Amino acid sequence: MNEILPGVFHWTTIHERIGREVSSYYLSGPEGAALIDPQVPDEGLAWFETREPPCNILLTNRHHYRHSDRFMAAFGGTVWCHRAGLHEFSHGEVVQGFDFGDRLPAGAEALPVGSICPDETALFLPWARAMAVADGVTRRLPDGPLSFVPDFLMGDDPPAVKQGLCSAYTRLLDRDFDHLLPAHGRPWIGGAKEALRKFIEAQTSE
Known about the structure:
The structure is a single chain. By secondary structure, this protein is an alpha/beta fold. The protein has a single domain (about 1-205), classed as 4-Layer Sandwich (Metallo-beta-lactamase, Chain A), CATH 3.60.15. Helices cover about 20% and strands about 30% of the residues. It is built from four helices and 15 strands. The strands form three sheets. It has a seven-stranded mixed sheet with strand order 1-2-3-4-5-6-7, with no helix packed on it. Strands 8-9-10-11-14-15 form a six-stranded mixed sheet, with no helix packed on it. The chain has a two-stranded antiparallel sheet with strand order 12-13. A hairpin with a 2-residue loop joins strand 1 (about 1-5) and strand 2 (about 10-15). Helix 3 packs antiparallel against helix 4.
């Protein structure tokens, strides 16, 4: 567990189903505590017991439910996903839908991304000047560049998906953020907005 920004903790685990490393986040800011796309860290649930309980879980898309059930069993609360993804939860999971533009727990604002799937969401955290993103863009190494996830994860028409992602990310640049928190890959702390702008420019100039 690493506190990468005041009130923002990051950790990585191996996702059992896909066999790849994924990122999760715990938020403890001025508007309460929450988790983003959580898996249980190596430290276990006990790590959270001495902190503000993470009674809200924010999903950047429906596929990132991950270990939410374990956190809900331990701490109670609510799992939040964009309502376009609620059909995924047909095995007794209790998930609350939100719309783009909604203000969510922990001071997060839900912003539209789409392209990969209708429920693909960016979570803007004004108090941390951070933007959490789902499955489009990644950073494989702590000091590496931004890149798209592999084409085989982008459906039947990767070029069209990438074009849609670039359009959505361009809209995100209207927000005041300096840090990027991807669900796949390592966080970009400081200068992330400019890095995302240059990434988009590189993609659209090809």
